[in-house]
Design goal:
Largest sheet: 5 strands, mixed
Distance between the termini: 42 Å
Structural class: alpha/beta
Number of strands: 5
Order of helices and strands: EHEHEEHHE
Helix content: 25-40%
Strand content: 25-35%
Mean pLDDT: 96
Bound molecules: flavin mononucleotide
Shape: globular
Number of helices: 4
């Protein structure tokens, strides 16, 4: 059994819809389990992600970057990073944007 966590932020629902589609894709794989985490919720409970074999991160594109909420989540993981606590996990990511460019 592989346990996949999808960690995402979404201000207006588009990235949330994409996150649901990613989660549905995970569940189509034999032996894969999926759990969804809202970035600002799990930022204060990072141990909830320790059991994941893979993490897929999703953020809206805001001003050519990740959203502020998602960056807060990223900053919250700095201790995990320093200890290489998630070193052996697979990782992926996605974003939604209004255009093909970084700023609009
Ligand atoms: C504050 C803000 C900044 C944005 N900046 C960009 C941008 O730099 N490039 C772009 O293509 N779209 C930009 N967009 C459009 C969003 O990326 C797009 O609407 C996205 O689907 C929003 O995702 P969400 O509904 O999950 O919040 C911006 C939207 C907002 C609200």
């Amino acid at each position: 059994m592989a346990f996949v966590g999808v960690v995402y932020d979404s201000g207006y629902g588009h990235t949330a819809a994409q996150a649901r589609a990613v989660g549905e894709g995970v569940l189509r794989v034999d032996g894969a389990e999926c759990r969804m985490f809202f970035a600002s919720d799990v930022a204060g409970d990072l141990e909830a992600l320790d059991a994941c074999d893979a993490l897929i991160f999703g953020t809206p594109t805001y001003l050519g970057s990740a959203s502020a909420e998602f960056k807060s989540f990223m900053e919250a993981t700095s201790g995990k990073w320093a200890r290489q606590g998630w070193r052996d996990k697979l990782a992926g990511g996605f974003t939604t944007s209004g255009g093909y460019w970084g700023t609009s």
